[in-house]
Design a protein that fits this description.
The protein is α+β, with helices and mostly antiparallel strands. It contains 17 helices and 13 strands. The relative contact order is 0.11. Bound molecules: adenosine monophosphate and magnesium ion. The site of magnesium ion has 3 residues, from loops.
Length: 491
């Protein structure tokens, strides 16, 4: 039996959607980690994946039976400027894996060598970005955020030249699909309406089958993507997650988070926070994420115009109406997220000041975003729980008046204290992939070939909601000298 059940529906689309391309072999592949729970979900034998044969496949040295590797075409707005031709320059779609329950997932290699879309790039990835994506994407999944996932990572035995020579690696990434806003933009920019329609049909069949029954399936597709992105961005905001490179080629139609290049979780709360070394204007700062998502979705609407309606004016009106609903949908999802974080059944209009004042105080006193909310969950119910984070974080005097207001508000809420606290612990994780921990894992692997730090971190983050005092180090904010101020795209 073949170790992976492949289907290649994307590779059956016309040739202008991709180029056929195999991985460019590397010298000495070595397994780093196999994601066993994910392999089980996909019906892939994890032992095979970790074997010599599986390692060769993940490194791009061998093609698994049934796989038709392709590098896909896409375009995108990068930092607001349109690039009509990006494409998989360092990635290969091996095909789609059909899980035992029938669900379809893309299996993609990242760092597998140059493709016709590489332009000047080498098509490779250093070890650091591969580990970073593995750690953060898996953490996001465990935090309940829709995301691409890491199935396996391997070293290549080769070095890649960046500002210094670094060990090379390949990541095997799984997504519901890799169809991006930029994939639609690629064909829209070429006025290839036939391809736009084929791509829309493909995306609808795969992700939004209900849209097929709508009077206007393309409009239903646009509305469904808007709805998913509104919920996704609200989840990012609720966790202090900063994506860092919200270009339209990095937003997926399926609504999963993709591209863990310069991303980071905030330590101290700062709405203007930016980590990406190339984001000089702060375009993708924490507080801008909802409006950038809105802007990106308007690019999707624009790309869909030719197939939205054959009357151009009508098409524009339909697109506009769909796009204009994004802010409301985001604010609704965001309000629900905040209610859960504060332990309330729902936010009321009068709660605006309570919420705004908290953001203000968190920023003014530079409080740790994750621990502040986690401590709030501790305080919601005095149940003698010895797993509180009080030893790591206590609210300063300046917040006592706010806490008193919050307690008064809780008293008017119908939730029982036990249910409230359980909900708050779910909404306020204690373990997030803090930048300094991620950097430490990368440094140990890159500089000392020590993968132990990486493995331990992935294991701790597999259970982000349950505090264990023996893991206090993983919940502790960075010391001043450990603070990571900049992150870099994984090129
Ligand atoms: P990203 O920053 O990962 O979203 O990538 C933006 C574009 O640059 C995509 O078309 C990538 O395929 C391409 N790219 C990034 N890094 C490399 C590389 N090392 N070699 C070739 N192409 C790359
Ligand atoms: Mg990208």
């Amino acid at each position: 039996m073949d170790p992976i059940t492949f289907d290649n529906s994307y590779a059956q689309l016309p040739e202008r959607f991709y180029t056929r391309q195999s991985g460019v072999p590397v010298s000495a592949p070595g397994a780093i980690r196999v994601n066993r729970p994910l392999a089980a979900r996909l019906g892939i034998d994890a032992d095979w994946l970790a074997s010599e044969e599986g390692t060769q496949v993940i490194a791009g040295n061998a093609v698994a039976a049934g796989s038709l590797p392709i590098a896909t075409a896409y375009a995108g707005h990068q930092f607001g400027g349109f690039n009509p031709q990006l494409g998989d320059g360092r990635a290969l779609l091996l095909g789609e894996v059909i899980a035992p329950d029938g669900a379809r997932f893309d299996l993609q290699l990242k760092g597998s060598g140059p493709t016709p879309w590489s332009r000047g790039g080498d098509g490779r990835s250093p070890l650091g970005p591969v580990l970073r994506e593995y750690i953060v994407s898996e953490a996001m999944h465990q935090l309940g955020v829709p995301t691409t996932r890491a199935l396996a990572a391997v070293t290549t035995g080769d070095t890649v030249a960046r500002d210094r020579f670094l060990p090379g690696a390949v990541l095997a990434r799984v997504a519901s699909s890799h169809i991006r806003i930029g994939t639609f933009q690629f064909f829209a920019a070429r006025r290839d309406h036939e391809a736009l329609q084929l791509l829309a049909d493909h995306a609808i069949a795969r992700h939004y089958p209900d849209a097929m029954r709508s009077d206007n399936p393309v409009l239903a597709l646009l509305e469904a993507v808007i709805a998913r992105q509104a919920r996704l961005i609200a989840q990012w905001q609720s966790l202090g997650f900063i994506h860092g490179v919200m270009n339209t080629d990095n937003m997926l139609i399926c609504g999963e988070t993709i591209d863990y290049g310069p991303c980071a979780f905030m330590d101290q709360f700062n709405p203007q926070q930016v980590y990406s070394s190339i984001d000089h204007q702060g375009r993708y700062a924490y507080r801008n994420q909802p409006s950038i998502a809105h802007w990106n979705l308007s690019c999707l609407a624009q790309a869909l115009l030719p197939i939205l309606h054959n009357d151009e004016e009508r098409a524009v009106a339909l697109a506009q109406q769909a796009i204009d609903d994004f802010p409301r949908q985001f604010l609704d999802a965001n309000a629900q997220g905040i209610a859960r974080k504060l332990g309330l059944g729902a936010l009321r209009e009068e709660d605006t000041a309570l919420v705004e004042d908290l953001w203000q105080l968190l920023a003014q006193h530079e409080l740790d975003f994750t621990l502040a909310f986690r401590r709030l969950a501790d305080l919601a119910h005095a149940n003698g729980n010895d797993n509180s984070v009080a030893a790591l974080f206590e609210f300063p005097e300046a917040l006592q008046a706010w806490l008193a207001r919050w307690r008064e508000r809780l008293a008017q809420d119908a939730l029982s204290p036990t249910d409230r606290q359980a909900m708050m612990y779910r909404a306020n994780p204690v373990f997030i992939p803090r930048n300094h921990l991620v950097e430490a894992a990368i440094a140990a692997a890159t500089d000392d070939s020590n993968f132990h730090v990486f493995h331990t971190l992935v294991d701790v983050l597999a259970n982000p909601h349950e505090y264990r005092p023996e893991l206090a180090l993983y919940a502790t904010p960075p010391r001043p000298e450990q603070i990571v101020r900049q992150t870099f795209c994984g090129t």
